[in-house]
Amino acid sequence: MGDLSLGELLLDRAQDKIAVIADDGTFTYVNAAVETILGYDPDDLLGEDAFENVHPDDAPIVRQEFDRMRQSAEYNEATVTYRHRTDDGDWMWLESRMSNLTDERIDGYVVSSRDITDRVEAEETREEAATRLNTIASVSSDVLWLFTGDWSETLFVNDAVRDIYGVTPERLDDDPTAFLDAVHPDDVTRAIDAMERLSDGESVDIEYRVNADEDFNKWVWVEAIPIVEDGVVTRIAGFSRDVTERHRREQHLVVMDNLLRHNLRNDLNVILGTAEQIAEEHPETATLTEQIRKTGDRLLRTATKERQIIELLVDRQFRERVDLVDAVETAIERAQSRYPSSVVDWSLERDGDDEPPVVPSLTRTAVAELIENAIVHCDDERPCVDIAVQIGDGVVEIDISDNAAPLPDIEVNVLTGGHEFGRDPIRHSGGLGIWLVYWCVELSNGGITVESADESGNSVRISVPARTGETRERTAGSSAA
Description:
Elements: H1 5-12, E1 17-21, E2 27-30, H2 33-38, H3 42-45, H4 59-71, E3 77-85, E4 91-99, E5 109-115, H5 117-139, E6 143-148, E7 154-157, H6 160-165, H7 169-174, H8 188-199, E8 204-210, E9 218-229, E10 232-242, H9 244-281, H10 286-315, E11 321-323, H11 324-338, E12 343-349, E13 358-360, H12 362-376, E14 384-391, E15 395-402, H13 409-416, H14 432-443, E16 447-452, E17 458-465, E18 478-480
Parallel strand pairs: 12-14
Antiparallel strand pairs: 1-2, 1-5, 3-4, 4-5, 6-7, 6-10, 8-9, 9-10, 11-13, 12-18, 14-15, 15-17, 16-17
């Protein structure tokens, strides 16, 4: 190769494998990097076939590129990736660049190779992940989607968008905002507002009507998050779920609620008014008319609880959060305003001086219902309820103890989730308040345990998730009427 000692010295310090390959495919020069990358001694490779250690599946392509490059009448270069055997028998991915630019002092063609094993394996991992994602997306009934942060490009959307929105993935590839044509005209403004909020870095949870082909009778629930990189929203990911059936059930509940509530209240008011008139005109019937009034009042209270349950299930109030102390104190105040002869004591236990956390707003309703249930079912003239609140790591436990009659097993099963719907149409819990407590805690992702004494007294523990929030300074204490 001539006097290239200085050049060889520099090449030996290069990190890439530099080789010179003759027309017959043998090595005439290999720098020291071959030992670092592949483990071979450079001198052992001189005169050897450069394609001998290329993976059998890749060797034909590599040799073809080499021959095409060296036989070209004009300047030509090629880049090829392939697997090469290491000195210990493993395989490593190389990327080699070569050209037919040569020099009479160089006996062959210069080939520069670098280790790209990590890059290839990372690409394979990404491809495997993409394959798994595509498999999941292909069988998902939800629309899974990914857009750029400015909504200028559709990065991914699965085929479910056809059935739900009535829009093809191809159309969204051409125009990312084409899904807005599938949104009900009255909901478009809210959808655009949600898009702008996402581009500004805010997560979104929204429902609206879609699919013009079906007269916009489909409802979708859309949940999306912005993906922020270096303070910039680069992508927006989310899903859209068909919740049409849920909306229909909610409409049914609202209609039935309006019919039952209005008709029941009107009819009961007639009954109660008639009973009062009978009692005035016929005092000897006072005992019977009093029974009618008590039963009517109880049914009116039941209608009120039924309304609360409908609002709970339809309006989904459980997404809101409130101050823990406010929740407990408001529940106590509500119960004592209705039953002024009751005594309710409560205490709060927590570690350190941190302010109380925030809890699901339904906690307030559940506590109020349990206090009221304890008071109503207590035979003592002065019902007593003790509430102990303990704050743990990410959870709040509220113990409500009373001196009332033990809860029936059927109601304990309702509270603790041990009931089985539809198994026994005869046996059921007579109190909607018990069901209201169960649904409040269940929708808050909490839990309930119940302990009852043999003769009297119950202890109901509610556990609900809690998180730190801005709360006002409050002092727990005793409240008695």
